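During the first year of the project, the team set up a workflow for recording each protein of interest as an amino acid sequence followed immediately by a discrete structure-token representation. This format lets reviewers and collaborators read both layers of information side by side without switching files. As required by the reporting guidelines, we include two representative entries from the current panel. The first entry is reproduced here exactly as it appears in our internal archive.
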Amino acid sequence: MPLPEPVYTEGTAGRTGLPDHDFYSSGTLTTAFLGTALEFRDQTNPGSGVLFLSQGMIFANDGASDIEFSWDGVLVTGVVKPGEVLTFDNRHKEGVFIRGTGGGGQAYRFWAW
């Protein structure tokens, strides 16, 4: 049996084709995962709110202490050191939990596509 046809949408340049989803978040972190649970909702087409599986991600630590991230909000999956940029390719997730380790106000930037 053939696979179902992929969902087609209007892209950012007005062309039609495979969905082009983008997510961006920035701000400051608390020391709890519950403070920053990032759910990948499409920002390419404003107002669509489509939840998507990422193809890749970038974590940028703009602060002075470590950023920890988790896929489930409980176990620490990895750490991004101060000034470090961490890139994942072919990482299929619907969201991520992140927190700072140095108290309040840890600056971050995050992209998913």
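The second entry, processed by the same pipeline in the following quarter, appears below.
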Amino acid sequence: MKVVILAISKKLNGYCVAGKEVRPDGTFGGWVRPVTRHRENNVIWNNDMTYVDGSLAQLLDIAEIPLEAGPDAGPVYQTENRWCPNHPRWVRAGNIERADTARIAAMEDKPANLWLPPTPNLQSDRLPLAQANENFNSSLLFVRAENLRLSKETNYGGRGIALRVAFGYKGGRYRLKWTVQSRLKEAAISMFDEAAQPITSDQPTWVCVSLGEPFHDHVYRLAAAVIGPDFPV
């Protein structure tokens, strides 16, 4: 299956990779998230997403990925999950330029909100797991962000750096943890100046929002990717 990659984000001991099907006529279909049987937590590792020429998959690549359907491929609400067989290499079949905003816009999702409306104080992106299992039939959204703002801050307890994305969508405002892939986190951090001033953009920008793995009877909204002309990672 050909898939345009819209997320490569940090997930537990590996990565979450997701994208939308590219049909033979070039239009875009539904969401796909490759997961593995042979990795703990079903994550993708670098060597799972290495092309035949040795390079690694990147955001907005169009990749030919061998996939198998599976009814037991993850949490109930992650309906996009598809098994990725062990060892077969992915093939790079093209890419979409970040400046090609018209083609990127053709992949937008337009729900009323991000599964549930945002909390008024923006402090919690925690959603009840039972509600996710019973009522959510997706775990991935690709939405156009309004007044996007990236910030860098110290993690809880002073351990490391956290990146967060705040943006508006259909009258609500969301503030999500940006789970940028670890091999590019330093590049993301380097976008900030010495004073760590928040970064904004007046260019069209999209956020891939994901519902992560269950955690203590809850699930969290996460920014799995930020895509636009001003964001090289």
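For the second entry, the following points were noted during internal review. The two ends are 25 Å apart (CA to CA). Residues 129-135 form the longest helix (7 residues). Both points are flagged for discussion at the upcoming steering committee meeting.
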